[in-house]
């Protein structure tokens, strides 16, 4: 496994180019570059090369390797995480605090990739304020493999004792198996759930395995210097440019990830064959390669802070260059004054226990900062909740304050989200709950997914005021629809649940069912056929339906936008024609048992849809309304219920098809404020 010194220079240069490529793509091109995959290949190449340099790894040598790796990773990571936490306290929109505290913790324990996978993060989603900890997912994956791969190599070397003292056959076999199994899984899970796959450690294992295999074969691949130059330059050009033509963030880490992985392998093989690529082995690039790890860690929080401060996702040439220079300066200071003294300490290298202890103490830095951040968050959250309660009880709004405050907007959920009355997406069983006067003769059923559930606060207030029984049959991610193949029904349990719900509603025989009528945006807004099927099934059972036109979907996190543009909330408004069709799609339908209601005027005037009105924040994310807005909309919902009852009585009196009403008369959105004084 011996390697020439020039070869080591080329690898350092490859690291530098990969780090710069990542930052350039992030800052200006706003795409995933594939540079991180280069880091994975190089990391595995060194893991295998280092551990097998003197033959099969001994178990005791693993602890030496772990200590050395911790001294390499922990100093820079702990400093960057701690600083990012401090920057977040001052610059991050407080609407992001709740989630980002969790990401800070996940980053500190090197599990950020799984935290992002569990939240189905769309990497580099344009228009959304980025998490300043998001780049640490790649470090988390590397650290996990820094731990796992040495164990696998050690275990493989124990299994095969028939190939002499070298025992490398089993190691190669193990790496081939990991490559095949992981790549197959990566292709499968990328097709099924790409946002999850992007951060899945096991979907990335094959990239490390290929890097490990390269350590075994690189000395056996020989070619002329001319051929090596061609291979090296072609591989580098492909690496630098392929992501310009592919939306890598939507395709990785499936088959497409082979491009940067094989390109990195090509460059390493070419370098081993003396291609002498000046772009990679010149003194400055090699020097910067030593800083590449810290540079990668620093560029992202600086980019995030710039976007918080500027309120813009796009970064100009000068600000982008300042971010790169700032990251470079911080990387230099971090590497030479913080990382190297720990990494190169002779005292620590001779005492593994001390290495582990020193790294544990360094990790106390971000933990202490995180503790302070969480404490501040809890205090501000208590103040925000108290302020919201006072507002809902009729106290005049504070100047410049919005309700719910953005700090707690994402948690401003319907009551059924906390009292066990809203079924989870995966479960097909019915969860039925009652609110209001549970012994009343009049019954209204609220049925559907979260866009039906979000009106619970309004309906509950009306039920308590008018004395009727409100029954909820709601489930996350499942609309009241009998179309099993609909693309909006993403959970397999939805169809079975819907069939049960329709039968349960027939048993209840309510005065009517309150549910959603439309889906889609702008010219694509429509009444789905599955909705119609469910209403027709209810008509067979003699059940009437109040179908409410869905609220506009903004496509960006509204509380975060309100934070970023506190002085100019109009920047969070969007043209009505982009969010709603000019003519309500319900006007094409005339059903005996369905009353269509349109209250879109509460969200939009003739030209704009505004998510912030009269101190009230209408949305808790990009498309769900806040519980506060729902409660304040009770007067309008009461009028809608009354209009539906009147329409159904009129139809019954005529004894024939009355047809349909497009909705009740428009009522100014300001009426929602009157509910606070009731």
From TrEMBL:
The keyword Nucleotide-binding does not apply. Keywords: Acyltransferase, Membrane, Transferase, Transmembrane, Transmembrane helix. InterPro entries: Acyl_transf_3_dom (IPR002656), Acyltransferase_3 (IPR050879), SGNH (IPR043968). Pfam families: Acyl_transf_3 (PF01757), SGNH (PF19040). It comes from the Bacteria. One of its GO terms (cellular component) is membrane. Residues 9-337 form the Acyltransferase domain. The chain crosses the membrane at residues 7-28, 34-52, 73-92, 136-157, 169-189, 201-219, 226-245, 251-272, 284-309, 315-333, 353-373. GO terms for biological process: lipopolysaccharide biosynthetic process. Residues 421-639 form the SGNH domain. The keyword Membrane applies. One of its GO terms (molecular function) is acyltransferase activity, transferring groups other than amino-acyl groups. This is Acyltransferase. It comes from Salinicola corii.
